[in-house]
Amino acid sequence: MSDVSYNTPTGEYDTQLGDYFALMKPRVMSLVVFTALVGLIAAPVPVHPVIAFASILFVAIGAGASGALNMWRDADIDAVMRRTAKRPIPSGRVPAGEALSLGLALSGLSVMMLGLAANLLSAALLAFTIFFYAVIYSMWLKRATPQNIVIGGAAGAFPPVIGWVIATGSFSVEAWLMFALIFMWTPPHFWALALFMKSDYDDADVPMLTVTHGRKVTRTHIIVYTVLLAFLAVGTGFTAIGGPLYLATAVVLNVLFLKGAYDIWRRPEEAAIEDGYTVEKKFFRLSLWYLFAHFGAILFEAVLRPFGLGGW
Asked: Transmembrane ranges (predicted)?
């Protein structure tokens, strides 16, 4: 695809290939691909490499479709938030209508092709995930309730379940444990971001917890969710997808995560402003490694298990 310049009712756009890719939120897409792959490999049923590759590719396309639909819906609030103002639509590089068309087309393609490559249950779950993120979260929850990121976090938690269903054609406790890890990780991850983004959510009139209940309440919520997450994460180490390597990883990371949450909880907002929210930013960066390391440990346990080296 070549670069395109054209006129629209709102002005002239100079759209490049990279802008369409940016619409699909490649960073989020990479997390979706990784967790879905872990779910597929951790499943007790082997999958032919060609089918596995094709299936994960279609899951990635579905994730990209969700991202494009989300950017189409959120273009108005993205334009007033510093973190998102340079995205393709608010910056004027891509017209909103094209983002919507891209999202809808990729949604249909990904679901249809996953059904052909793997099984209908995984395709149906992918379709529900796209619908949940684009409609339930983006169009409703995000602007309606401070629990937006809590309930909406389910959309990002489905990929490992999809991977598991691709391999097995069914659900299991282990798949839902991976779902729960992401689901419980999402609120403290995003609330830490909301703390140091200061007025972004106020300016965009998004009812994030920091806006509706204040920063002190948000700090309390972060530590509560982190404690619950720690129990879940460490407990998963004693299940069929866990093992010594995973358990050691979970213990170390959750000690660090709990300390970070405690440091956020115990200090007043004035101290955070004075030092530029360094503690909150450090916790946010740790949260990115936290999820990657947990799923990486599940992956290693699954890879080593056939050799008698992984699992219990």
From this structure: 28-45, 51-72, 93-114, 120-137, 149-169, 175-196, 217-238, 244-262, 283-304
